[in-house]
Amino acid sequence: MEVNNLVVLAFIVVLCLLFITKIVRLRKHPNLDLPPGNLGWPIVGETFEFMRACLEGNMTKFLGEKMDKYDSRVFKTSMFGDPIVVFCGPAGNKFLFSNENKNVQVWWPSSVRKLLRLSLVNKVGDEAKMMRRLLMSFLNAETLRNFLPKMDTIAQHHIMTHWEGKDEVLVYPIVQLYTFELACCLFLSIEDSVHITKLSSKFEEFLKGIIGFPINLPGTRFHSAMKAANAIRKEIKMILKKRKVDLEEKRAAPAQDLLSHLIVTSDPSGRFMTEMEIIDNILLLLFAGHDTSRSVLSLVMSYLGKLPQVYEHVLKEQVEISEGKEAGELLQWEDVQKMRYSWNVASEVMRLSPPVGGAYREAIKDFTYADYNIPKGWKLHWNTGSSHKDPTLFQNPETFDASRFEGAGPTPYSYVPFGGGPRMCLGQEFARLEILVFMHNIVKRFNWDLVNPDEKFKYDPMLEPLKGLPIRLHHSNF
User: Which residues of the sequence carry a binding annotation for heme (predicted)?
Assistant: First the structure.
């Protein structure tokens, strides 16, 4: 216990010294015209205020109050031990997305960096471009279309196993079984339900510690997350070792999943990813590839339960697709392209309730934005809440209206659930397919009522329902 107390004390002292160093640096430049705002308390800044807003589902309110008080274009705060400038609205999004490797580069809080080590999250410049290109050569639409029948099979089996015969279900934990199984299958060819469940429980621990102060002491979220991440890496490493042998002996195919693809594919210079790079990127994509989609699908189920007319329109579209197929025929690429209204619904859900609140950058040189000076080394943040509900961009922004995404859709840089620019979400197409495949299968089998129609959602770190989103199931007439 005494050792632990000394470690905590040392950690606090280091943070204090870092904070003082930053303040001294600022005071050396008293005429620096920084964006308006409040750096909050020493060390912690406004971290707890921000995290409280996330846990209460009030991130948009947190941002809106500061935009009203300081500047609607940009303001400063301090979180996770660093001064941060928050860029707001389409102009702010455009600036950050368009200035990668010019004025800014990717940055994440220390907890993320330590947990995701050698993955794309921590790569910048040419190294990031090469790694992204390797990953996207599997995660592009042309490759993923070949997995659609498999995705449809998994969705059907999931619904038969976990939904059929039930009067009431908890959507959030059950949908996670679907999204995680899908990710395990496409990325690692894991299909054994026991193995998937074992990995899934570790990911729950990993997820809860990914955003926050990186205090690696027993009893903290971060400590549990580190243990879980190491256990997951160990599992992936065992699979990787066996896969290499299977590929050499022709028992596995180079294109069967993401793991095989990364083992056999090099960048243009002939360089292959190291084993640890492959493992850390698989860890990243298993996390990102299933958890954001779990959040979106839970939200879709919530909105469809509240809006029967929207549900009926989605059902009509999906039934028409099924009626054009032979009995038992699985979904194909052309079927998904017909799900335009269903994807507009999912898009409007992500506008109203984005599963991820935003992301971070770092200033790699001094620059000026909106007549303010942004110092080199400062952290930068863009947030979906600053544009998704702006009445100047979306008429009646609190109203659900899937027609917003017809034709040309929203104003550029106003709708950013997947980010934008060179760091746009790698799994955007994968997410689109797993969401639409699930919607296709669930609405044809069931309609449902929400047990708690006013249930709140919180960011922890993804958007999730406070009570798991219980619903009462009724068999569809189709």
Answer: 425
Query: Please, where are the H alpha helices in 28-140?
Result: 47-55, 59-69, 89-98, 110-116, 125-139
Q: Does the reported pTM lie above 0.70?
A: yes
Average pLDDT over residues 58-62: 82
Beta-ladder partners of 358: 383
- The H or E element spanning position 10 is helix 2-27
Please give the angle made by the CA atoms of 79, 113 and 242, to the nearest 5 degrees.
155
CA distances to 11, 69, 306, 456 from 453, rounded to whole Å, are 44, 33, 7, 9
Report DSSP state, residue 273.
P
- Helix, strand, coil share (%) of the chain residues, nearest 5: 55, 10, 30
Is residue 412 pLDDT above 60, yes or no? yes
Q: Do strands 379-383 and 367-369 pair parallel, antiparallel, or not at all (unpaired)? A: unpaired
Amino acid at 262: L
Q: How many CB atoms lie within 10 A of CB 309?
A: 6
- Tell whether residue 88 is among the known ligand binding residues: no
Spatial separation of the C-alpha atoms in residues 386 and 373, rounded to whole Å: 21
- What's the pLDDT tens digit per position in 191-203? 888 888 888 888 8
d(CA 73, CA 369): 9
Of residues 461, 16, 4, the one with CA closest to residue 219: 4
Q: Taking a C-beta distance cutoff of 8 angstroms, is the pair 463, 295 a contact? A: yes
Q: Rounded to 5 degrees, what are φ and ψ at 358? A: 160, -165
- Do 280 and 421 touch, CB atoms closer than 8 A? no
Q: Return d(Cα 195, Cα 242) in angstroms, integer.
A: 16
Q: Residues 439-456: what's their mean pLDDT?
A: 96
The amino acid sitting at 1 is M
Closest CA to 461 of 389, 354, 338, 306: 354
122 near 379, Cβ under 8 Å?
no
Answer whether 203's CB lies under 8 Å from 270's CB: no
Locate the DSSP E strands across 8-70. Answer: none
Contact call for residues 188 and 236 (beta carbons, < 8 A): yes
Report residue 238 as tokens.
């065992």
Give the model's confidence band at 392: pLDDT under 50 very low, under 70 low, under 90 confident, else very high: very high
Question: In this structure, what token pair is assigned to residue 23?
Answer: 């303040």
Whether the predicted pLDDT of 8 surpasses 70? no
How far is Cα 262 from Cα 282, in angstroms, rounded to an integer? Answer: 10
CA distance 266 to 119: 16
Give the integer Cα–Cα distance in Å for 446 and 87: 42
Of 304, 291, 286, the residue nearest 176 (C-alpha): 291
On whether the CB atoms of residues 389 and 60 are closer than 8 A, the answer is: yes
Q: How far apart are CA 182 and CA 171, in angstroms?
A: 17
**Tokens standing for residue 95:** 């600036």
Q: How far apart are CA 452 and CA 463, in angstroms?
A: 17
